[in-house]
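sorry for the late reply, my laptop died twice this morning and i had to redo everyting from scratch. anyway the thing you sent over, i finally got around to it. pasting the sequence first so we're on the same page, its 332 residues, then the predicted structure underneath. double check i copied it right bc i was rushing
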Amino acid sequence: MQLIQGVSLAVFFSSALAVPATLTPRAAALSDLNGKFVAKGKKFWGSCADSNTLGISQNVAILQSDFGQVTPENSMKWDATEPSQNSFSYTGSDALVNWATTNNKLIRGHTLVWHSQLPSWVSSIGDAASLTSVIQNHISNLAGRYAGKLYAWDVCNEIFNEDGSLRSSVFSNVLGENFVTIAFTAARAADSTAKLYINDYNLDSANAKVQGMVSLVQRVNGGGTTLIDGIGTQMHLSAGGAGGAQAALTALAASGVSEVAITELDIAGGAASDYTAVVDACLAVSQCVAITSWGVSDANSWRRVQHPCSLTIIISRRQRTMRLSQHCLDVT
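ok and here's the structure:
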């Protein structure tokens, strides 16, 4: 195991299969993962961030040097932004947006409608008209605040069961599938320039959940107005679990959306070969526009005990390809 001071994890982009004998903290910066990915025709390689990780200097240095986009990990969720009805708080989300704007990073907003991290005053609503109004007001305020500043929004997040049916939530229980159209219509009105995404996990192979997603997107977009621009597959994987990524991306793209993206990539116990499979899958599907890693360091990952190998990157500056070597080191 090689150690890099202040860095918890390394993935090496190199044509050689041997781990370099000497690694220095300086090598962990200025490697421009995002630039190399963009050179392959993609829009960005991003990472999640928020005030907690933006307060860590090593983390910030890597975000600045290697990533072209940030997603707020928690600060734009409903419990953070509207904890009580019509009382909005933007301290965390403003900090993220201001940092990203200052550092010329794109932003993916995350997330407008989600069953989790939802205040009890929302989850207790039982009237369709009231819930519709609450969704519209929340999205109008939150998405409207950052109109023109964000590349994309995850409008609806994790709304499916594994069999492709709708998850039981206050939104589906009270409004049925209509809540999706309500949310996307409100988001389009609030920010006409942002790409509007529907996002979920376990969209990692051509499975029933992927088919449920494709069917819903085609229904929502089938009325003559395109509301859903993109589909996000989170790709929270386990070691060896990336083999279905290309089939999943291909199936999602076949829904007719203009773009798909890998939005929250981490791989528990993952080797570099696992990341290679994901990168190759995105490169092989033209509609796959971006990859976002879910964090810079294992130390701050929601899966830290599983060592998800969350892409603190060292790249050979002579290497021009986007191929990963067979080395993914868990370092402290």
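The first helix runs from residue 33 to 38.
thats about all i looked at so far, will dig more tmrw
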